């Protein structure tokens, strides 16, 4: 039976198991919106700006483990989407984005609302397609979902010319996907796994360094088994948070630029470092020559190009975290059967004692105030009040780092943050996607006043679509993270960072039909959080915090992890930081 | 990243799906990562759904390793082979239009003969020479012609193919009727 291409697109989405799409209509995709009019079983959420559709799809994907889908029109809509695509690419988030395109015969003609969509998204997607023949619709959509969700996950873009959507075609739906050019490797090499197991079993100072790949492969159970089996201390990247419960005695919290003192020290002094689904980002390694200088490094990653990209690795294992960890647990168990080699046991005890000492002497800390709200305190109370059971989303900046440091993560897939691209404005739209994927659950968007302003129009979407996202604005009247760099590295030459108290966030929330609350004293915080949580509507809680607060520890960009600044710096430290600074 | 090795030229053969846009994916990959392509040539293979690209890239071991991995990562790339340290044959074709004054016409023809270059166009004042060979040979030819006054040079970029095995027939490809024209091109210039 023939049907319009637009209808085929929707049928294919349904076959793919999609029940929700985020989008915004326009000329080139009107045929799809027309088909959507009486199409059953597909919810469409109308966003207010296209990037929000992309971010919402990311939030949906990260927390549900399924592919997020968004649909926007040609030209300006496609270019608006670009930020979200690059964000998903950097953080390995599986989404499929559909854009409209001018009719095939007009492509290249500078037609109305034409842009070279696939040309523009080529470098910010895992793969992209321009559909030039309606018979390809089914196979392309099938492949798009396959590519987005397998191997190293990522965004895939499908560009749909209007005439293809209007003309009638047969629905072609291949039973199987066969791609000779794309076959990700899931099983790690047994010999390499054995080598890794031997190293771990004989290590005196082992550390596991865990990243977002553990989240995307749902490998938390296997990871925990490995850590507990060998009592291996474990640190998580910003993207890995939640992979392992932070309350666990083996947890060293986050590592890296704003990671814990003990995580960075442990990694630096380790003799065997096992990276699991982590990509040695420069915010983690700092100066590469000084990163874990004495460690034999094992790297488990599904993407061969991640391996030895930044840091030369001794034992690469290309494969899926979950499968490889499963095998590694068995192999380590085997190695440990005969008991530890002489010296190992003693070494491990010393190592545990050393780590305990670091943890005791240099915890995350800040100075308390009775008068002004400290942002770190807000994170602690959000963590307490939610019991670590909320979905947490953030903007980008200081508040993001404090959330990472002070929220006690318990579960995987409950944390969404823009790590690789650091996209301000990511918070609210992503939280919308999380809420849509998890109806009835508590979703807290911890945002900055600067970041929130970049997509606050989505409060309208929250209101009209019944998405009761709770936003907590850590309001420091400015671009706090930039202010921190200018304070520490640019000798307090503050420039272009102030966001004086406008808009009034409470009134803005109300203007959008949401509930607005404000806190300016520490004593008001907990009652306000409780009120926010018990309010069924979307809420904006504006928390006025100490604007001079800085995020510590801090490893200046390009510094070694032992160059950590632990407290507001003296002039000496500041000068040293200025010398090692490599750009912002 | 610590770069232990000196940069050098690598010849990389890439089998890709013969689809629109693949060339720009490959070119885009190199420009986005700041790698330099010295030459690139593309053509169909025995299987018309597969194209073969021959890339010449300069870089140290680290750059080449990343470039190869990134090429692999492109969804339309089927196979990547670094031929540099394998036994292989490389060829490039060049067309050279050179001033041909009466005083040096004979000299040009002699040089062309030595290099087995063919004269493909003749006017009272110029010759166009066609020559095929590896890089060294073409460079040498160009150097010898330079004093005569070269007007224009066009080069195809390098193509490369692995040498056959010394003993047995190579795995894989079922024997097919060879495309004589292509094969002759290679055989004809074996040196
Ligand atoms: C202001 C700011 C400050 C930051 N500070 C820090 C900081 O202090 N510390 C920190 O850690 N980060 C920090 N970041 C984030 C940082 O930029 C990187 O995004 C982050 O470190 C990358 O995390 P990751 O290594 O877990 O990799 P991800 O980006 O999560 O990548 C996942 C890796 O796992 C692999 N993978 C994916 N799926 C699988 C699978 N199924 N099996 C196996 N492997 C798989 C992928 O190939 C990839 O290599 C900061 C970001 C911002 C914006
Ligand atoms: C789209 C975008 N523009 C600029 C930046 C650079 N940047 C990083 S953090 C930051 C300030 C963020 O301010 P805010 O959201 O208020 O967070 P705070 O640091 O104050 O907690 C800026 C401007 C960015 N990451 N993203
Ligand atoms: Mg701020």
Shape of chain A: globular
Gyration radius of chain A, rounded: 25 Å
The helicity of chain A comes to: 25-40%
Low-confidence stretches of chain B: 177-191
Pair with the most extensive interface? A-B, 22 and 21 residues
Strand content of chain A: 15-25%
Question: Which strand-content bin applies to the residues of chain B?
Answer: 35-45%
Note the gap between the termini of chain B: 40 Å
- Contiguous helical run count of chain B: 5
Radius of gyration of chain B: 19 Å
Helix/strand-derived category of chain A reads alpha/beta
Q: Helical element count of chain A? A: 23
Using DSSP, what is the number of strands of chain A? 20
Distinct ligands, ions and cofactors found in the model: flavin-adenine dinucleotide, thiamine diphosphate, magnesium ion
Helix content of chain B: 25-40%
């Amino acid at each position: 039976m023939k049907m319009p291409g637009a209808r085929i697109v929707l049928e294919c989405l349904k076959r793919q198991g999609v029940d929700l799409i985020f989008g915004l209509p326009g000329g080139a995709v009107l045929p799809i919106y027309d088909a959507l009019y009486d199409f059953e079983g597909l919810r469409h959420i109308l966003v207010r700006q296209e990037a929000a559709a992309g971010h919402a799809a990311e939030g949906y994907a990260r927390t549900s483990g399924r592919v997020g889908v968004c649909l926007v029109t040609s030209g300006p809509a496609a270019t608006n989407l670009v930020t979200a695509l690059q964000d998903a690419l950097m953080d390995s988030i599986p989404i499929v984005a559909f854009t409209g395109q001018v009719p095939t015969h007009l492509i290249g003609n500078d037609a109305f609302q034409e842009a070279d969509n696939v040309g523009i998204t080529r470098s910010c997607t895992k793969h992209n397609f321009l559909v030039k023949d309606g018979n390809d619709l089914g196979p392309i959509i099938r492949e798009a979902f396959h590519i987005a969700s397998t191997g190293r996950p990522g965004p895939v873009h499908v560009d749909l010319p209007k005439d293809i959507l209007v003309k009638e075609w047969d629905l072609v739906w291949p039973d199987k996907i066969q791609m000779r050019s794309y076959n990700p490797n899931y099983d790690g090499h047994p010999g390499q796994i054995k080598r890794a197991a031997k190293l771990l079993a004989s290590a005196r100072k082992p550390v596991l360094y865990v990243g977002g790949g553990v989240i995307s492969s749902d490998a938390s159970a296997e990871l925990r088994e490995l850590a507990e089996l060998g009592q291996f201390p474990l640190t998580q990247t910003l993207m890995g948070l939640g992979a392992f419960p932070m309350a666990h005695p083996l947890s060293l919290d986050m590592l890296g630029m704003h990671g814990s003192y003990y995580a960075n020290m442990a990694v630096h002094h380790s003799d065997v470092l096992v990276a699991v689904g982590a990509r040695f980002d420069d915010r983690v390694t700092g100066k590469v020559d000084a990163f874990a200088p004495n460690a034999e490094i094992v790297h488990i990653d599904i993407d061969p190009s991640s391996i030895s990209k930044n840091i030369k690795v001794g034992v690469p294992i290309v494969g899926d975290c979950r499968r490889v960890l499963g095998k590694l647990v068995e192999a380590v168990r085997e190695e440990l059967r005969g008991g530890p080699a002489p010296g190992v046991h003693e070494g491990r005890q010393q190592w545990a004692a050393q780590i305990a000492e670091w943890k005791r002497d240099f915890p995350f800390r800040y100075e308390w105030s009775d008068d002004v709200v400290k942002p770190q305190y807000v994170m602690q109370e959000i963590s307490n009040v939610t019991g670590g059971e909320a979905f947490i989303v953030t903007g980008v900046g200081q508040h993001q780092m404090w959330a990472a440091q002070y929220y006690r993560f318990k579960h995987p897939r409950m944390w969404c943050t823009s790590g690789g691209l650091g996209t301000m404005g990511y918070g609210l739209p992503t939280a919308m996607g999380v809420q849509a994927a998890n109806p009835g659950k508590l979703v807290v968007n911890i945002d900055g006043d600067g970041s929130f302003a970049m997509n606050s129009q989505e409060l309208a979407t929250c209101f009209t679509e019944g998405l009761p996202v709770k936003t907590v604005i850590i309001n420091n009247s400015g671009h706090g993270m930039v202010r921190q760099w200018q304070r520490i590295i640019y000798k307090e030459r503050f420039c272009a960072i102030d966001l004086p108290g406008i808009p009034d966030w409470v009134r803005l929330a109300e203007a959008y039909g949401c509930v607005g609350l404000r806190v300016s004293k520490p004593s008001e915080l907990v009652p306000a959080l409780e009120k926010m949580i018990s309010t069924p509507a979307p809420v904006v809680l504006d928390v006025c915090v100490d604007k001079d607060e800085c995020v510590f520890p801090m490893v200046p960009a390009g510094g070694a992890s032992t160059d950590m600044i632990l407290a507001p710096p003296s002039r000496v430290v500041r000068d040293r930081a200025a010398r090692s600074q490599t750009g912002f | 990243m610590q770069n232990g090795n000196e940069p050098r030229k690598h010849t990389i053969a890439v089998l890709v799906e013969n689809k629109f846009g693949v060339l720009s994916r490959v070119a885009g990959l190199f420009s986005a990562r700041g790698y330099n392509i010295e030459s690139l040539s593309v053509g169909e293979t025995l299987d018309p759904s597969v194209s073969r690209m021959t890339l010449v890239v300069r870089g140290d071991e680290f750059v080449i390793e990343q470039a190869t991995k990134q090429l692999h990562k492109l969804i339309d790339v089927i196979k990547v082979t670094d031929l540099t340290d394998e036994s292989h044959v490389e060829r490039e074709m060049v067309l050279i239009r050179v001033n041909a004054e009466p005083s040096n016409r004979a000299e040009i023809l002699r040089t062309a003969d030595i290099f087995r270059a063919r004269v493909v166009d003749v006017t009272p004042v110029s010759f166009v020479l066609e020559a095929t060979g590896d890089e060294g040979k073409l460079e040498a030819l160009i150097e010898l012609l330079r004093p005569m006054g070269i007007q224009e040079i066009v080069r195809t970029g390098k193509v490369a193919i692995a040498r056959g095995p010394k003993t047995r027939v190579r795995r894989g490809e079922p024997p097919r009727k060879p495309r004589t024209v292509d094969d002759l091109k290679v055989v004809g210039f074996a040196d």
